[in-house]
Design a protein that fits this description.
- The protein contains eleven helices and ten strands.
- It is an alpha/beta fold.
- It has one domain: Phosphatidylinositol (PI) phosphodiesterase (TIM Barrel).
- The longest helix is centred in the middle third of the chain and has 13 residues.
- It is globular and about 50 Å long.
């Protein structure tokens, strides 16, 4: 495999194992991912759990089948829930941090709320496990106050901003919030490809970020066309649901 291309597992590689679970994180490690991402929320008794919800929305039915909102559940309730269509339980943040500590595999945390309590608690847990160099925080640029809050209380923790507007000035956005990484797309790269075919600004923006020491990542790639497009435009860090599939595409593409 091209050694400068890094493959990063979205929700722990949800195409390979139940999302946000310890089993998924182990699968990403076995698959040779360079890092993984997971989502973090708070229970009613303020325990950080790894579960995907919409931002500031406690609906966990799509993930667990449980109709009670997360904000009405304590950790003792949540720990009995499994990720839908699996036997894998909802994980606690401490379990994930223990996994990172033991495996050395870097993690990116996406807080699913702008709650200062959640951010402060996440930072405290990262510090408690001494993982400031291994665990980063990411979110959409729309919720950039999360990233500025992280940098304010923990400057050594890396932050990533997801940009979904292809017309944005990526470097200015990164500098405005002192972000270490910019991720373009996340739910699809088609509109970036269409816009770039018209104005051809992406290679310049990629060069600007790299020259300033800011990483750029494509998130997330869903097919061979996405992989080829990101590599062609100088983006060598790829988010994906399926690490082996994306690795195969990378190996097959001569860029």
């Amino acid at each position: 495999m091209k050694t400068d291309v890094k493959i990063l597992a979205h929700r722990g590689g949800m195409g390979r194992a139940p999302e946000n679970t310890i089993a998924a994180f182990q699968q990403t490690l076995d698959d040779g991912a360079d890092a993984f991402e997971c989502d973090v929320c708070l229970t009613r008794d303020e325990e950080p759990v790894l579960i995907h919800t919409k931002f500031d929305d406690g609906d966990i039915k799509p993930v667990t089948g449980c109709t009670t909102p997360l904000r009405q559940l304590d950790w003792t309730d949540v720990r009995r829930l499994n990720v839908l269509n699996s036997s894998q339980p909802v994980a606690h943040l401490d379990q994930m941090l223990s996994f990172v500590e033991e495996s050395g595999l870097p993690c990116f945390l996406e807080p699913k709320s702008g709650s200062e309590r959640l951010i402060t608690l996440v930072v405290d847990r990262i510090r408690r496990f001494n993982l400031e160099e291994k665990v980063s925080v990411l979110t959409f640029y729309l919720h950039r106050e999360i990233l500025t809050h992280v940098k304010r209380i923990a400057p050594n923790i890396n932050t990533s901003a997801i940009i979904i507007n292809p017309m944005a000035d990526f470097l200015s956005a990164a500098r405005a919030i002192n972000a270490d990484r910019i991720i373009i797309g996340w739910s699809g790269l088609n509109h970036f490809a269409i816009y770039n075919s018209l104005v051809q600004s992406l290679p310049r923006k990629v060069r600007q970020l790299k020259a300033a020491g800011v990483s750029i990542e494509g998130g997330f790639v869903q097919n061979r066309r996405d992989v080829e497009w990101t590599l062609k435009n100088g983006i060598r860090r790829l988010w994906t649901d399926d690490v082996p599939e994306t690795r195969a595409y990378v190996q097959d593409i001569n860029i």
